[in-house]
Amino acid sequence: MWHIFKADLMNNKLILIIPCGFVLFGMIINVALGWQNVELDLPGVRSLMTTAIIVLIIFNFIKYIQEKRIRLISILPLSIIKVALSRLLYIVFIWTSFMVLYWISLSTAKPYRSNIIFWDTLSVTGLILFVNTFPFFFRDFNFCFKEKYKAVILSILLVLMFFIGYILIFSFGISEYSWKIFQPLLPLRKWLVSVSSTSIGAIIFILIGLGFSVLNILTFVHRKSYIE
Q1: Taking 60 as the threshold, does the pLDDT of residue 150 lie above it?
Q2: Residue 225, Cβ neighbours under 10 Å: how many?
Q3: Stretch 181-207: mean pLDDT, rounded?
Q4: Spatial distance between the Cα atoms of 91 and 216, rounded to a whole number of angstroms
Q5: Which of 50, 65, 163, 228 is the most buried (most CB within 10 A)?
Q6: pLDDT tier, 22 (very low <50, low <70, confident <90, very high otherwise)
Q7: What is the pTM of this model?
Q8: Helix-helix angle 186-196:199-221, to 10 degrees
Q9: d(CA 115, CA 120)
C-alpha cells in the first residue's frame, strides 16, 4: 500500500508544483510581512490551501481515470481494503503537510482568536476528507448496482454533490458582502460558520469526513468489477 502511495507522489510531482507553490508563497509573504491583518490573513491562507487541495483532488481523480490505475492496482497482491485506502492517502498526506506548515507559520503571527481559528481549521479538514472521497465514491457506485438502478442513483448523487459543494463553497469561501444576490442564504452561511468555529462543530465535520472515508472504502470493496 505504501509503495502505491509513493508512486502516486512521484507520478504527480509536476502537478504538485504550482498549487503547492502558491500555498508556500502565501505563507512566506504573510510571515515576512508579519501578518499585518491576522484576522483576515489566516482565513485567506487557509482558503488558498483549500483551493490548492481541491485542484489536486480533481487532477488526481482525472489521472486515475485516464491511466485506468484501478485496473492495474487491483491485480497487485494486496487486499481490496488496502487498495481502497491507498487512493485516499495521497490527498490526506498533502493536506497534512499544508496543515503542518500552516501551524508553523502561525507561530509568527500576532495575537489572534486562536480557539476560533483552530476549530474552524479542523472543520475545514473534515470537509477536505469528505471532498477527497466523493469523486471515488461516485465512481465506485457506478460499479455497484445493476443497470436499471444505476442511472437514477448516479443522478441523485450528482445533484447532491453539486448542491453540497455549492453550499460549502458559499458558506466557507465567499464573503457575505460579495454576493448580494444570495442574501436569502446568508443566515445559513452565518449558522454554518458559527458551528464550524466551535469544538462540537469541528468534531461533527471531522466525523463526517471520516465517515465518508470509511463509506468510500466499503463501497470500493463491494464493487462488482475493477475493470474500467
Answers
A1: yes
A2: 11
A3: 79
A4: 14
A5: 50
A6: confident
A7: 0.81
A8: 90
A9: 8
